[in-house]
C-alpha cells in the first residue's frame, strides 16, 4: 500500500516528464524545419507554405525569435479557441465528436468528484477501522470504503451516492447522445452534395448465365425502382491493376527527380544502373509474367535499381524512366481492358445510384429480393471509406467468417499468453546460440548477455501488444466489413474487450486471462462480483500510477509526435527527392479510433468503478481527460488528416461501452457491499443495473436510428431544395465516376494532369478507349433528370 | 423408480382413457344436435346447414344410422385427406403452418428414435453398473445412461450421438424454415388484394396546435411520399361508442326474438317487464350519464329485465325494444358526432394507404422523421388483427411499460408461489368459518369438510394455472402491442419461459422457482448444468407419465370439446332465441397459439434432452406428436375459426425455441457427462452449443427477413400484374373503409342490412350525416389513381 507521499512522488515524476514533453514540444514546434511534422493538416489544406523558403539561412532551420519560446504554452488557448462549427468544417464531424468523448469524461466526472469529495471522503475518513486492524495501511486507504466498519449504517451513503452517480451519468449520456444525434443530422443535412447520398451498395448479386453483372443490376433496378434508378457502377477485382498503377507512380516520381536534377545541372545527364533481369523480351506474355513476378516479390530490389543498384548497365536515367513509364502504361491499359472485359474480374456487387436522395434512402433501408441473402442493399460508404477487397464476399462465407473470427478472438483474448510463453521459453541465450552458433562470441559478452537476458522475456509480450491493434484490424478485415469506418469500430470493440479482460480484470485479480476464466466458470454468479469487488479498493494506487504513466505521460508524448518526427527527418534526408515525396513523407496520420477510443473507455471504466469505492482516483482521471482534450484538439486542428468521414457513426458504440462500464461498476459495488455485511442493500443495488440496462434500451430506440438510418423527411427536404436551386443539375455526370476503383481513378486523373509529352500516343489512345468501354458499362437508357 | 410394468399399467390406463374419449367423440359427433359443436367451421363458411331441419323427428336428435357408429375412427383418414394447399385455402396459412410444428416433431424424433434404439439402447443395456450398486433400479433405468460405469469409453457413443442428433435437428430445422418461408412468400404473393398490402400504420404523430391529426398526416405524407400517397384513416378512441353499439345489438336481438314469437303466435302480444330506474328524463345529459353508468356497471341487471326482471312495469315487448333501439341509435349517432368532431377522441395514429404495394413496402421499412420516436411506421396488421386500444401509446410510455412488464413477469415466474401460499394459509376451514359464520353448520358436516380440506389447498394453484394464459395476455396487452397476432406470440413466449422454469426445471430439481433461482445464483456456471443434468435420468419415468396424461389424454380430450359442447347446449336451452344467437353460441374458438405452442415446445425440449440420456422417452413423444397432428388437423378443418391471418409470422419464434431447447439439452448433457468422469469429452461438448448458436444466427439472417419484411421485388411484381389486369381499378374506394374502427363499421353495415321499417327516420338521417362527416375526414385532394 503506497502512502500519499509515495503517490505524490510518482505524480511529481510523471507531471515533470509530461512537462518536459510539453517544453520539448514547444521548442520543436517553432523550428521551421519541423513545420511539416507539427502542422501537416494546414499543408494538406494548402493554407500554409514552408517557412524554409523564406527567411535568412539560419532562420530557415532554427527559430531565432526568442519571444516564441517564452510563450511556450500558448498552443493551449490556441487549440481551444477554434469554435466547434469551424472545427467541424476544418476537420470533419468525426474528429469534432471524438473530442466530445473527452469532454463527456469531464462532464461526468467533475460533478461526481465534487460530490464524492464533499460527502464520501469525509464519511470514509471519520472512521478508524483500519487503525484497529493489524494491516498496514496508508492515508489513501483511509479515504476509501475500506475504512468503513463491517455492517455499518454508513454504507447507506455509498448506496445513495451510487444512485446519484448513476443518475448523473445517465443524464449526461442521454443529453450527449441527443446532442451528437442532432449534430449528425445537421451535418448530413447541411452538407453539400455527395455521391454517397445518392448511392446504395448492392451486394450478393445472384449469378446469371445470360447477363453480365452490370446488365443484371441495371435490369433489376429498372424493374424494381423504375422511377428512381439513375446509374450503376460495377465493382472490379483490380488488385493486380492497382499494383501496376503504384509501380507507375514510383517511376513517375523517379522521372520527376531526374528531370529536376537535370534542369538544375544541365551539364551532366543523370544516369542510373539497370539490372538486366528483365530484358525487352519480345514475347509479351513472358515479359509480363516475369515482370509481375518480380514486381510482386522483389519490388524494391528490381525497381530501386537507381538507388541500390551496384551492378548492371549504366543508362540515361531520363530516357530509361520515360520508356519504363510508357511500357507500364501500356501494361496498365492492357490490364484494364482485361479487367473490364473479363467476367471473372467483375465482382457480384455494384454501386447503384438514384435520381434522388429519397430513392436512395428507401432502397438502402428496404429488402429487395425474396431471397434475403441476395440483392442486399445498404448505404454506400463514402468513396474514400470503401474497403474494396471485401465487397464480394457471399453470405454463407460471411457467416462462417464471423464464427471463425469469434472463436479466434476468444482464444486470442484468453490464451494469448500461451504462444508468448512458448516463444519466451525458446528465446533464451542457449536457444539463440544453438540457432546461430557464429554469433556465440558476441552473445557471450557480459553486457550484451545481460541486456538479452533482461530484454528477451519481455520482448515477445511487448511486440504482441504493439501489434495487437493490427492483428485485430486484420481480423476485422477477414470478417468482411466493407468500410474503413466499420473496420475501425469493430477493432475498437475488440480492443476494448481485450483491455477490459487483460488490463482491468487482469490487474485486479492477478493471473492470466485464462486462469480468471477458469475461476469464473467455477464460481457462482454471486461470487464473481465479490471476488473482483473485494480486490478493487486495494488496487487503487496501482491504477493511479497507471493513469499517470499511460494517461498523462502518454498524452504528453502524443503531442510530441516523436515517431513521425524522426521518420520525417530520416525520410527527408535519405529518400525525399521531389516536392511530392516530401508531401508523402509528412504522414499526418489519423486519430486512430481503433486504439484511442478503447483507451478512453478504460478511463471511463476506472472512473465509474472507483467513484464510490476510492474517490481519490477521480482527480487523476479528470486531469487526464482535460489534458487529453487540449492535446487532441490541438492535434486535430494542426496534425491529423482523417481518411474518411462517417458522420460520427461511432457514437452508439461509445455510449454503449460507457453504459457497460456503469453496469460493471454497479455489479462490482454489489459484490463489495455484500462482503461488507451490508447485505440489506442488495435489492436496492440490483435495481440499479436493471434501470441502467433499461436506460440503454431506451436510448437505443430513441437515438440509434439517427446513426443507422436516413430519415425520408430529411432526404425529401434536401431533394426539394436542390431541385429548386439547381433545376438543370446533371446528376449523372456528377455521379459518373464517383465509385470507380481508386486505381482506375488515379490513372484517369493522372492522364489529365500529367505532362502529355511524356505519354506515348498509344497510351493516350488506350486511355480513351478504356474510358469508353468503362462508361459504356455504366450507361443506362437515357432519361431526363427530373 | 417405476418398473416397466408400472409404466405399462400407466400407459394402458392413459391409452384406454384416450380411447374412451375417441369413442365418445365418435358417438357424439354423428348426433345431429351436436353438429354445430363439431363442425362449426363449415357453418361459418356457409357450406353446411343444420341436419335438424331435415329428417324425421327422432332422426333430428339421434343418429339412427348404425353404420356410422361402426366406422368410428373414420374421421382420422378424413382429417389427413385434405391436401395442404386446400387446407391453406380452407383455414389459412397460420393454421396450416401450425400443423407443421407437429409434423416437424415427427420429422425430428422418428429418425432420432430409430438411431437411439438401434445404437444407444444396446450400448446402455449391455452393462451391469446398476446391478452392482445397492440402489433400487428398474429395467427402464437399464436402458438409460445411468447404466454406464463411470469413466467408461462407452460415453463416446453418447457424444457421437449428441453430434448426430444435433446435426439432424439442425438440418430438419433449416429445411423446415426454408419451406415455411417460401410458403409464406407464396401465400403473400398469391393472395388477392388486401387492404393491409397497401397500408402502413403510422404511430406517434407529433401534436400540432394548428392542424388536426388527419390534416397533419395527410400533409406529411403528401410532402414526403408525393407520388405514392393515396389516403389516410385516423384512429378514434371509440371505447364508449363500441359499448353503445354492443348495447344496441342486444336490443335488436331481443326485438327479433319477440317478433318471431309474435309472428308464431299472433294472438298474444309478447310483454316484458321494465325496471323504472331509467325513466325518460328530458334532460339529455342526465339521462345519458345515468344510462351509461348502468350500462357500464350493471349491463345484465338493467338490460335483461325481460328475462330476469321480476319487479317493474309490464310493457309491450316489441314496442319497448323498438323505442329502445331508436333511442340508442340516436345516442350512437350523437356519440359518433362527438368522437369524430372531438379532437381529444382522435388518437395520434393513423392508417396511411398508398397507391401501390411498392410504396407501402418502402414506407413501412424506412424511417420517416428526424426524430426516430415520431412518425413511426410499420406494416398495418390485417384489419381483423388490429388491437385498437393500443394504437396511441407514446414512445416513452411504451418503454416504461416494457420495463414494468419485464419486472412483473420476473416476479410472476419466480415468486408466484408466495401469494398462492398466502391464499392457501387463509383458505382453511377455520378461516372460512370466521369469515362467514352462518355457513358453519354446513361446513362442519363431515363429507363437505373433507372435500374442502382436500380441495382448497390445491384450488388456488389450480385457479392460478388456469388463469395464467389470461394473465400473460393481459400483460402483453398492457405492454402495448398493436395486433392480436403479436399479443399471442408474446404471450406464448412468456408462457414457454414460465413452463420451462416451473414445469421442466421445477420437476427436475424439486423446489419452487425462487429456491432454484437462489440455488443457481449461488452455484458456479459449471455447477448448474451438473445439478440439473444429474437429476435428469431419474426423472424419466415422471416425464413419461406427464406426457401420457398431459399429452395423450389431453389431446384426446381436446377433440371431444367437452366444454364447448356443454356450453353450447346450455346456451341453446336457456339463451338462444334467434338464429343469430345460435350462431353466436356455436363459438368455434381458435387454435390458441399462446397456450398450444408452448405445450408443443415442452415436448420438443423433453425429446431433445432425453434423446441421449434416456431414449425410452422418445416413443411416447412421437406418439404424442402423431396423435396431436391428426387431432388438430381434424379440428382445424372442422372446428376452429381463426380470428386473423398473420401469414405464419410466428415461425421464427417456433424455430428459435427449438434451437434454445437444443442448446439446453447440450448443456445439460455436458453437466451430466462431467459427473460421469467423462471429462475428456467436455471440449467436444462445448463446441456443440457454439455451433448451434451460430446455426441459429445463420438461419436468422437467412430466413427471418421473409417474416418481418416485404421484398420490393414481390411488391413490384404484384403491382405490375394488377395494373395490367385491372387498369381502371378504383383503389381508393377499395381502401376507403378498410381501417374504420369495427364499431363504426358495424353500425354502417347494420344500417345497410337491417329492416329499414324498424328504424326511425331520425336514425336514418343521422346515419347519413355521420357517414358524411366521417368520409369528409378521410377525404383527400382528388387525384387520379395511377
Radius of gyration of chain A: 31 Å
Helix/strand/pairing category of chain A = mainly alpha
Tell me the overall shape of chain A: globular
Percent of residues of chain A in helical segments?
A: 55-70%
Number of strands of chain A: 6
Mean of all residue-level pLDDT scores of chain A: 77
Low confidence ranges of chain A:
276-310, 752-786
| Biggest β-sheet: strands ordered side by side in the sheet of chain A | 2-5-1-6
Largest sheet composition of chain A: 4 strands, antiparallel
Which protein chains are joined by the largest interface, and how many residues does each one contribute?
A-B, 50 and 50 residues
Distance from N terminus to C terminus of chain A (CA atoms, Å) equals: 74 Å
Please identify the oligomeric state.
homodimer
- What fraction strand of chain A? under 5%
Number of helices of chain A: 38
